[in-house]
Design a protein that fits this description.
The complex is a heterodimer of chains A (487) and B (465).
Chain A (H helix, E strand, L loop, with lengths): L7 H10 L4 H19 L2 E4 L2 H16 L11 E5 L26 H8 L3 E6 L33 H8 L5 E5 L6 H7 L2 E4 L20 E5 L2 H11 L29 E5 L9 H16 L3 E5 L7 H16 L18 H12 L2 H14 L5 H24 L2 E5 L15 H6 L5 H6 L3 E8 L5 E8 L4 H15 L9
Parallel strand pairs in A: 2-3, 2-4, 7-8, 7-9
Antiparallel strand pairs in A: 1-3, 4-6, 5-6, 5-10, 9-11, 10-11
Helix pairs in contact in A: 2-3, 5-6, 9-11, 9-12
Chain B lengths: L9 H13 L3 E2 L2 E2 L2 E4 L9 E4 L6 E10 L2 E14 L3 E4 L8 E4 L6 E7 L6 H18 L13 E5 L13 E6 L2 H20 L7 E6 L4 E7 L9 E2 L6 E2 L2 H10 L4 H12 L3 H7 L3 H18 L7 H20 L3 H11 L7 H17 L5 H11 L6 H7 L8 H14 L1 H8 L5 H12 L6 H13 L5
Parallel strand pairs in B: 11-12
Antiparallel strand pairs in B: 1-5, 2-15, 3-4, 3-14, 5-6, 6-9, 7-8, 10-11, 12-13
Helix pairs in contact in B: 1-4, 2-3, 5-6, 7-8, 7-10, 9-10, 10-11, 13-15, 13-16, 15-16
The chains are: A alpha/beta (487), B alpha+beta (465).
Chain lengths: 487, 465
C-alpha cells in the first residue's frame, strides 16, 4: 500500500509510531498529484514542492523533539480556493480574482498552520462557490475520480475529487447549500458542514454570509473530526461565531448505537429520488438499526420549499457580497473602460462567469423595491418554518438520516444548460444550511453503475458529537471499502 | 478585501446611546444592522452597513433657545453606521481627477435625523450649534468640522406662504462648516423659490455643495438611484441594549450645555452671554470653574462680588487672545501649564486655573494694573516661576506712589507744550494721549485711574509750575 492511499486514521497511527515520516507521506502525496492531476483538475494552485517538503520536515523535527504534536502535525491538507491563504493565490475559481493574492490567512487556515498541517495547495471550485458540479470554474471543470466523464459535484468539487483520488488525505471546503456534502457524496468521501457559527468565516470569501460555513472533506470520519476540531471555535473577528466550547468530537464508542434515536423523513424518499440511491440509503438505515439505534419515521414538511427559499436568500446576500468586485482596488479591471460607470460595468462583465451573473441578477431582483416582501421576506419565512421542522424533529430523535443527493454524479455537460435541474440537485442539502444545523455525508456504497452514494446525517445545533458517533459506527459496521478508485 | 468581516465597535454603542439620551429619544432594547447597497468609488464593499429597520433610538427632541423663546426640534432617529471614504475632487493639475481617501472607511459614526421642524436658516443654525455643543460635551465628537468629526447633510424644501403641504425637498451634502450650511440653505431656498415662481417643479435630488463657487450642484438623482435594496446585515448579530447598560451610560454622562448655562448664571451671577461662551467647550467650562474656585480661595472674604465676572472676562477675552496670538489650543496651553507645575501633581486644567487665579488675584487686590496683569499672565505661561516672584522680577508692581506719579505727569506735560495748548483750546480727548504717555513711561505699571486723576489735577492747575 502506498502512503497516499492511507486514510487519516492510518496516517495518524503511522506517524506517531514512526513507521514513516511526514516528508515521506508528503512526497508520496505530491507524486500522486503530479500523476493524476492532469486527468482531474482538482487543484487551481499547488505550492512549490520545495516549500511544501520543508514544512513537512519541520513537522517531522517537531515530532522528533518530543512534546505532544497535534493530530494534524505533518499531515498534508488542501484548501478550497475561496479560503484566504496569505501569500497564496485565492481565486474563488473566478477570472475576477485570477491574480489576487491575499495578504492574510483565514482564521481556519491560521489554525491549521498552528496545528502543524502542511498546506499543499488550493482546490478547484465553482466560481465563488456558485454551482453544484464544478463546471462553473473559470479554470476548467474538475473530473470525478470514479468516472472522469462525470462531475465531482460542487462547489467544493476540487476538494472532494482530490481527497477521493488520494491527492491529499484531508481538505477544507465550504458549504453554503450543500457544497461540501454533495461533492463528498458524489466522490465517495466524508464531508461535514458544521453548525453555523462553529467555524469562523473570517477569510472565507463570502457567497451568502448567513449560510456559508467552512467544512471538511476526508476519506474517513476520524479525519473529519480531527480537522474540524482544529479549525472550530469562537473567533473575535467573526461576530457570528458561537461562544459554545468545542467538545471532543469523536469518542471511541465502537459500533454500538443503543439509546440513539434516528429519524428518517418521508419527504426525502419521495419523487425525484434515484432508485439505486434509495436502495443504498435504505440499506444504510437498516445497518444503523442493527447497531441498536431506534429508527423512527419523521416529517420535514417544508422540504419542498427549501430550494426556492435557498436560492432567494443566498443570491440576495451574494448580490451584495459580490459588489466589492468593481475593478477599482483589486481583481480584474477592464482595459476598455472610459469612465467610472463603464469601469464597473465592463470589469464585472468580463470578470464574472455566466452563473455568477445570473445569481447577482436574481439576488438584486429579490431585494428590489416592490419585490422584497414577495421574494426575500417570504424566503426568510420559509427558512424559519424549515428551522422549526428540524427543531420539532429533534424533540424526538437525535439524528435525521437521508440521502445526500437525489442522484449519483451526473455526466459533465448534462445539466449545465438547465440551471433549474442543477439547482434541484441541492434539494436534500439546502435545508440544513437554512436551519443552521450541522450535517455529514458518509459513503454508503456504490450504485449499480459503480458510482458512490452518500448518506446524510443531520443533528441539532452544536450536537456534532452525536453526528460523528453515528457516522463512525456506520462506517465501521458497513465496512466501507476504502480503496481508491482506479485512475 | 475579500473574506474580511465587520465587527461591532462596542464604544460606539455607548456613544450613540448617550446621544440618544441627551436628545430625549427612546433607546431600543434590540437593534440590528442592514446593508444599504449602491456603487460608489468611496464605498469599497459596494454597500454601507447602517441601521434601517431597527435603529438604536427613535422619537426624541431637542429644545433650542432661539430669539428669546424655546424651539422644540423633533428627532426622528439616532443610529449607527459605518463611514464611507472621502472623495477629494481635485481640480489641480488641469486633469480634474478625483482622489479617494479610504482611511475612514468602516469607522463607526452616529447619525442623527431630525424631523422637518426647522423653519428658517437662523433656526437651523441655532439648532446645529446647540447640537454641536451637546456632542462635544458628551465627548462623542471633537466638533472640529474641518476634520470631518461633525458633518451635516441638510434637506430643504420651500412652499408658498400659507400652504400646509411641504414642498419637494432636496438634500445638500458636503457641508463642512456652519457658514457653509447657512450659505447652502440660502442658495437652495432661493433656487427652489425661483423654480416654483417660474412655474417649474423642484426635482427630488441630492446636491453637492461646492465651497469655491458657493453653489449646490446635482450629485445623483434620487429618482434613479433610490433603491438601496436594504436587507439585514448577515455578518453582524443583533445587539441588545438592556436597562443596566442605559443606566450606566446615563450615569457617565456629563452635565449638558443647557443645564451648565443655567447653573453658571445662577451660581456665578454672570450674564447669559458669558454662560453661553463658557459652556461651548467642556474644557473651557472646567477651566472657568476651577479658576473661580482657586481665586475665591486666594481672596478669601475680601473677594469682590464681581470676581466670577472678572474671571469670565479673562477666560473669554484675555486667555482667548493669548491662544489666538500664539495659534495654540487650550489643551496645548494647559499641557504647558502642567509641565511648569512645580508639584508636578496637577493636571493641565487645574495647573492653568491655578496660575490664572494667581494673576487675577493680584489684579483684584490692585497690586498690578490691567496691562501689567496681562503681561504677567503672558509671562506666567512661559515659565515655572511663582507669579508673585514674577511680579518683582519683571518689576510690574503698580506704581501707586502719588508723588512719584505727579512728577512723571509734570514731565510729560512739560514735554508736550503744543498738545497742552490744544487741550486747553478744547481738544479734551488729548487726556487719553497724556495718560498713555504716563503709562508708557512706567512700563504700564501705573494705576491708570490714579494717573488720570493726577493728570486732570495738573492740567486744571495750569500744567506748569
Amino acid at each position: 500500500m502506498k502512503l497516499y492511499e492511507l486514510t487519516f486514521s492510518q496516517i495518524r497511527a503511522g506517524l506517531s509510531a514512526g513507521e514513516f515520516s511526514s516528508r515521506e507521506l508528503t512526497e508520496s502525496v505530491l507524486d500522486r498529484i503530479e500523476r493524476v492531476e492532469p486527468a482531474l483538475s482538482a487543484f487551481v494552485t499547488v505550492r512549490g514542492r520545495g516549500e511544501i517538503l520543508a514544512e513537512a520536515e519541520r513537522a517531522d523535527a517537531s515530532r522528533a523533539s518530543g512534546g505532544n504534536p497535534g493530530a494534524l502535525c505533518g499531515v498534508p491538507v488542501a484548501v478550497k480556493d475561496n479560503i484566504s491563504t496569505r501569500g497564496l493565490a485565492t481565486t474563488c475559481g473566478s477570472r475576477m480574482l485570477e491574480s489576487y493574492v491575499p495578504p492574510y490567512d483565514a482564521t481556519a487556515v491560521a489554525r491549521l498552520r498552528g496545528a502543524g498541517a502542511v498546506i499543499v495547495g488550493k482546490t478547484n471550485m465553482d466560481e465563488f462557490a456558485m454551482g453544484s458540479s464544478n463546471e462553473n470554474s473559470a479554470f476548467g471543470a474538475t473530473r470525478n475520480p470514479w468516472d472522469t466523464g462525470r462531475v465531482p459535484g460542487g462547489s467544493s468539487g476540487g476538494s472532494a475529487a482530490a481527497v477521493a483520488a488520494g491527492e491529499v488525505p484531508l481538505a477544507l471546503g465550504s458549504d453554503t447549500g450543500g457544497s461540501v456534502r454533495q461533492p463528498a457524496g458524489f466522490c465517495g468521501v466524508v464531508g461535514v458542514k458544521p453548525t453555523y457559527g462553529r467555524v469562523s468565516r473570517y477569510g472565507l470569501v463570502a457567497f451568502a454570509s448567513s449560510l456559508d460555513q467552512i467544512g471538511t472533506v476526508s476519506r474517513d470520519v476520524a479525519g473529519a473530526a480531527a480537522l474540524l476540531e482544529a479549525i472550530a471555535g469562537e473567533d473575535p473577528r467573526d461576530s457570528t461565531t458561537a461562544a459554545e466550547p468545542v467538545p471532543s468530537l469523536l469518542a471511541d464508542t465502537g459500533t454500538d448505537l443503543t439509546g440513539v434515536a434516528v429519524g428518517v423523513p418521508d419527504e426525502y424518499f419521495a419523487d425525484g429520488l434515484d432508485g439505486s440511491v434509495a436502495e443504498k440509503v435504505s440499506d444504510a438505515v437498516e445497518t444503523i438499526r442493527s447497531l441498536g439505534a431506534k429508527v423512527l419515521t419523521i416529517s420535514i414538511p417544508h422540504l419542498r420549499f427549501g430550494v426556492a427559499a435557498y436560492y432567494l436568500v443566498a443570491d440576495a446576500e451574494a448580490s451584495a457580497n459580490l459588489a466589492r468586485y468593481d475593478g477599482v482596488r483589486y481583481g480584474h479591471r477592464s482595459d476598455h473602460a472610459e469612465d467610472l460607470e463603464s469601469l464597473y460595468r465592463m470589469s464585472r462583465s468580463e470578470g464574472f462567469g455566466a452563473e455568477v451573473k445570473r445569481r447577482i441578477m436574481l439576488g438584486t431582483y429579490a431585494l428590489s423595491a416592490g419585490y422584497y416582501d414577495q421574494y426575500y421576506l417570504k424566503a426568510q419565512r420559509v427558512r424559519t418554518l424549515l428551522a422549526r421542522d428540524f427543531e420539532r424533529a429533534f424533540e424526538s430523535v437525535d439524528a435525521v438520516v437521508a440521502p445526500t443527493s437525489p442522484t449519483t454524479a451526473f455526466a459533465l455537460g448534462e445539466r449545465v444548460h438547465d440551471p433549474v435541474s442543477m439547482y434541484l440537485s441541492d434539494v436534500y442539502t439546502v435545508p440544513v444550511n437554512l436551519a443552521g444545523i450541522p450535517a455529514l455525508s458518509v459513503p454508503c456504497g456504490l450504485s449499480a453503475s459503480g458510482l458512490p452514494v452518500g448518506l446524510q446525517i443531520m443533528v441539532d445545533k452544536f450536537r456534532e458529537p452525536v453526528m460523528f458517533r453515528v457516522a463512525q459506527a456506520y462506517e465501521r459496521a458497513a465496512g466501507v471499502d476504502s480503496s481508491l478508485p482506479e485512475l | 478585501m475579500p473574506g474580511a468581516l465587520p465587527v461591532l465597535n462596542e464604544a460606539v454603542v455607548d456613544s450613540a446611546t448617550a446621544v440618544a439620551l441627551a436628545l430625549n429619544a427612546s433607546v431600543s432594547k434590540r437593534a440590528g444592522f442592514a446593508r444599504k447597497n449602491y456603487f460608489y468609488p468611496d464605498l469599497p464593499k459596494g454597500y454601507q452597513i447602517t441601521q434601517h429597520a431597527e435603529p438604536l433610538a427613535r422619537d426624541g427632541y431637542l429644545d433650542v433657545e432661539f430669539e428669546g423663546h424655546v424651539k422644540r426640534v423633533g428627532i426622528r432617529q439616532v443610529h449607527i453606521e459605518e463611514d464611507a471614504g472621502k472623495s477629494v475632487h481635485a481640480e489641480h493639475g488641469g486633469e480634474g481627477g478625483s482622489l479617494i481617501d479610504v482611511n475612514r472607511c468602516g469607522v463607526p459614526l452616529v447619525e442623527i435625523v431630525t424631523r422637518p421642524d426647522l423653519r428658517d436658516i437662523d433656526e437651523a443654525d441655532a439648532f446645529l450649534n446647540e447640537l454641536r455643543r451637546i456632542l462635544v460635551s458628551l465627548g462623542v465628537a471633537t466638533g472640529e468640522m474641518h476634520e470631518g468629526s461633525l458633518r451635516f447633510d441638510t434637506n430643504i424644501s420651500v412652499r408658498p406662504q400659507g400652504a400646509t403641504e411641504m414642498g419637494t425637498q432636496t438634500e445638500i451634502k458636503n457641508l463642512n462648516s456652519f457658514r457653509a450650511v447657512r450659505k447652502a440653505l440660502a442658495y437652495e431656498a432661493d433656487r427652489q423659490s425661483r423654480v416654483l415662481r417660474d412655474g417649474g417643479k423642484v426635482v427630488h435630488e441630492t446636491l453637492l455643495w461646492d465651497e469655491s463657487s458657493e453653489r449646490a450642484v446635482p450629485m445623483r438623482s434620487k429618482e434613479g438611484a433610490s433603491d438601496y435594496r436594504y436587507f439585514p446585515e448577515p455578518d453582524l448579530v443583533d445587539f441588545e441594549i438592556d436597562g443596566r447598560r442605559i443606566e450606566r451610560v446615563r450615569e457617565s454622562m456629563p452635565e449638558l450645555p443647557g443645564a451648565s448655562r443655567r447653573r453658571l448664571v445662577e451660581v456665578y451671577a454672570i450674564p447669559e452671554y458669558d454662560a453661553f461662551v463658557l459652556t461651548a467647550e467642556p474644557a473651557t467650562l472646567r477651566l472657568y470653574e476651577s479658576t473661580v474656585g482657586a481665586l475665591l480661595e486666594r481672596l478669601g472674604p475680601d473677594a469682590p462680588a464681581t470676581a466670577a465676572k472678572t474671571v469670565s472676562n479673562w477666560v473669554m477675552v484675555i486667555l482667548r487672545g493669548h491662544l489666538n496670538e500664539r495659534r495654540i489650543t487650550l489643551a496645548e496651553l494647559s499641557a504647558r501649564a502642567a509641565s511648569h507645575d512645580p508639584t508636578g501633581g496637577k493636571d493641565g486644567a487645574s495647573a492653568l486655573a491655578s496660575r490664572l487665579a494667581d494673576v487675577i488675584a493680584l489684579r483684584l487686590r490692585g497690586e498690578v494694573s490691567e496691562p501689567a496683569a496681562r503681561r504677567l499672565f503672558d509671562a506666567a505661561m512661559e515659565c515655572a516661576e511663582p507669579v508673585d516672584g514674577l511680579v518683582e522680577k519683571l518689576d510690574l508692581r503698580v506704581v501707586s506712589d502719588e508723588d512719584a506719579l505727579r512728577s512723571l505727569v509734570r514731565d510729560v506735560l512739560a514735554g508736550h507744550p503744543e498738545e497742552v495748548a490744544r487741550y486747553h483750546a478744547g481738544t479734551t480727548k488729548l487726556v487719553r494721549f497724556f495718560v498713555g504717555q504716563v503709562l508708557g513711561r512706567t512700563g504700564g505699571k501705573a494705576d491708570p485711574e490714579l494717573a488720570t486723576r493726577v493728570l486732570l489735577e495738573e492740567l486744571r492747575s495750569g500744567g506748569t509750575t
